[in-house]
Specification:
Layout: E1 2-10, E2 13-19, H1 27-34, E3 46-52, E4 59-65, E5 71-72, H2 76-90, E6 94-99, E7 102-109, E8 112-116, E9 138-140, E10 143-149, E11 153-158, H3 167-175, E12 185-191, E13 197-203, E14 208-210, H4 214-227, E15 235-238, E16 244-248, E17 254-258, E18 261-269
Parallel strand pairs: 2-3, 4-6, 11-12, 13-15
Antiparallel strand pairs: 1-2, 1-18, 3-4, 4-5, 6-7, 7-8, 8-17, 9-10, 10-11, 12-13, 13-14, 15-16, 16-17
Length: 276
């Protein structure tokens, strides 16, 4: 038995999208198999989307299952891909995305997709991180990081040049540090000389480096502004997969803007009821 999918990516952060109405008895097992880049289709996760067209603007209920089978409460580029998918089907330029981190508005402007990212928090209990106060430029497992939650936790280190960093060596000890009861994503960022930043991110749930991370881009931007590394708005953040823009409104809420591409369609095999 098979179910259809659509493959989208946002600045290289790629996802299989499956309509939530499709029968998938074990979403975690499917993600573990099909996100594998050697044996499966290859992706940074599977987005299961339920489209509710009766609302204005239309609503999309988004569930992201990651390559390790876990469910992530939020993904900036994933939400932008979900928005493009929904806009393609409804002919609209705006949609609401329901995530485990809250309901967010997405708009298409000049071909790019902008998604609300809520209000980042440095509150240790909400990240969560095992600390009595906010964590700024603190050594954790040998890496000096600032910690923020932008829908998911991020530990961000500013370095001279992200290309000089062995991310696969320095990130896992921080990602699995006892300081983070639910783990954390790990970002490194370096100034680009014009108020923006180059980005590399080791993602929790992917358990490796991704070509882009939207929540990570927001984490870098908000921390850079808090530490006085930039006063730009928007802040340009450049992961390996493309360019993103992070803006802030008067309430401190962030938005994430960048391109989204529909790559191709296909089908994946799932267990039939008789096989269960």
């Amino acid at each position: 038995m098979s179910v259809p999918f659509q493959k989208y990516h946002g600045t290289g952060n790629d996802f299989l999208i499956i309509h939530a109405d499709e029968y998938v008895p074990d979403r975690s097992a499917l993600a573990e198999r099909e996100c594998d880049r050697a044996e499966g289709v290859g992706a940074d996760g599977i987005l299961f989307l339920a489209l509710e067209e009766q609302f204005s603007p239309p609503r999309v209920v988004m569930t992201l299952v990651q390559p390790d089978g876990s469910t992530a409460p939020m993904c900036g580029n994933g939400a932008r891909c979900a928005a493009e998918w929904a806009m393609d089907r409804t002919g609209t330029e705006s949609v609401m995305i329901d995530t485990q981190s809250g309901t967010l508005r997405a708009d298409r402007t000049d071909g790019d997709i902008t998604i609300e990212m809520g209000s980042p928090t440095f509150d240790p209990d909400k990240i969560p991180v095992d600390a009595d106060e906010q964590v700024f430029e603190t050594a954790i497992e040998g890496l000096e990081v600032t910690v923020v939650n932008t829908g998911v936790p991020h530990a961000v280190a500013f370095v001279d040049d992200v290309e000089d960093v062995d991310l696969e060596e320095i990130a896992p000890p921080v990602r699995y540090a006892d300081d983070f009861p639910r783990g954390t994503n790990v970002c490194v960022a370096s100034p680009d000389g014009s108020g923006g930043f180059d980005q590399r991110t080791y993602e929790r749930g992917v358990e490796g480096e991704t070509d882009s991370c939207g929540t990570g881009a927001v984490a870098i931007a908000v921390i850079a502004r808090r530490l006085g590394h930039t006063d730009a708005d928007p802040v340009a953040v450049k992961p390996p997969g493309g360019d993103l823009q992070v803006s802030f409104n008067e309430r401190g809420h962030a938005t994430l803007t960048g391109p989204v591409e529909h790559e191709f369609d296909g089908e994946v095999t799932v267990e039939s009821p008789a096989e269960l």
